[in-house]
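Let us practice reading a record.
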Amino acid sequence: MDSRKFQSDRDLISNSNNYLARGKVSPPQSLASFVGRPEFILCCEPDKISHVKTLIDVSDLIYKASSYLQEDPILIPYKFENSLEKMTLAMEDMKIRRAKKPVQFVKTIGKAESLIFYETNFIAAAQWFSGFPEFTSLDMNVKLEILKSSWLLWLRLEKLAETADYHRRHVLGSDVFMCSEGACLNVETFELDLKWCTNYSVEQLRNFMIPVIEDHWRQSVAILTELEPSNIELNFMLIQLCLNEAGKKFQGKILDVTDRLMQIQANNLHDYYTKKLKLTNYSSRLTKLMKVNQAIAADARERKEKAYLAEIFNLFTVEYSHPEMFEIA
């Protein structure tokens, strides 16, 4: 299988502009587009701009994650065809341990919840990467750069898949989504407490902070619920999403590494489909699964753009010791 055939983003903007040009149709203008500024900037008030920042130091968190990444892989007394199969056993073990713990329902996301969210899920991503055989042999600085750039993407897909599993078994209602390790929230009723990180109100930043649930969450969960991906497929999706993001961001040496790892796992997935499942034509199923990755990647691009604007307009009163970890938070 050629890993280069996986398309994570297409230029929908230029395509739509061409369509408008051909049809000579002018898009309707909102107040924001009329004055030439994004909608959320219209509510910016100069007296609320933050010139003094509170530093959130995540150095210890990165150090803790690096300890997982440098550990020798655990020897498992099973014979695996390839590394993708080996990762699947670790995922199955994780799901068994997770099933024994109660799920906490989160009603409000404030400072305490956010900081616990960062620590719990960054470490969970590091533990997952530590079970990726080809990844563990990389230089530590390369491993950390890939982890820091992709852990939030890993989290989003992993939690959407977990949500789909719960919805399929009718454990969670249709408006309840997993948001962190062992935690869920109702996407229609949860509350944000932003006093700890901005001088602006939740109402002013709601459209800026909260993703479009219908586009980026519900549709992906519907696909995952319908297709019920195996652990091998889910691991491949996680690998593709994370490595594609890291490769695009860093280019050069890291892009070479991510391309090489992706090619290995693409071949492993091909063997899984053709040898284990006896499927000669699996492109339709894989295309549907990749739509989930594409939606997550699209959401990440939007959030990066918003993070850039937030920095320009000093919307937040906090900054991070390693801001590259939170570009799509």
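A brief commentary: Strands lie at 54-56, 104-106, 108-109, 176-180, 183-186, 191-192, 318-320.
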